Amino acid sequence: MALAQIRETVSVADYLDGEEVAAERHEYLAGEVHAMSGASARHNIICLNLAAALHRHLAGGPCRVFMADLKVRLSVNEEDFFYYPDIMVACNPADQASHFRTQPSVLVEVMSPSTERIDRREKLFAYRTLDSLREYVLIGQDNPEVVAYVRTENQWSTQRPQPDGVLTLPSLEFSLPVAELYRGTEGL
Questions:
Q1: Which of 75, 129, 154, 172 is 20–30 Å from 185 (CA)?
Q2: E strand or H helix at 14, and its extent?
Q3: Which domains does the chain have, with CATH numbers?
Q4: pLDDT tens string 62-98
Q5: 3 state SS of 119
Q6: Backbone region of residue 4 per phi and psi (left: phi > 0; alpha: psi in -120 to 50; beta: other values)
């Protein structure tokens, strides 16, 4: 007879306290804490290209763009989750916790081979439970692939712009050629 493995869970308060002093980032999944690996140069450039374009576009308005180090907090089936999206746009001025947001409008993940399955399944399911979320965007790190899940009313649709196409985020009245996402990644 096999013995059941007992996992200790970490409280939300202990997780948040630990993240403030941790040398590396961790995601929190219903009481379990998971270390995150570092990102590649391509990953960073893609994130920077999109975040910079969003920042310029949204300047002077209520929306703020965050990159990599601010968490999103959500609850799925009464369990707490904290993820570090690659890019987050938050537009609600009342959503002002110092280390996380709970009401993002847009979330973006740049997929690597090690994160693609989680980004396409786990995070897609979890993020779409957020009432505030209007778009969830997946961007291929190693190939020019963009998938945007867009909420209109209470329905989600999927947009897949081609490499010579345009990424559109209707909730922000924002568009950017897909080629601009990958500008500067040549040879990396």
A1: 172
A2: helix 12-21
A3: 39-69+83-181 (3.90.1570.10)
A4: 999 999 889 999 998 899 999 999 999 999 999 999 9
A5: helix
A6: beta
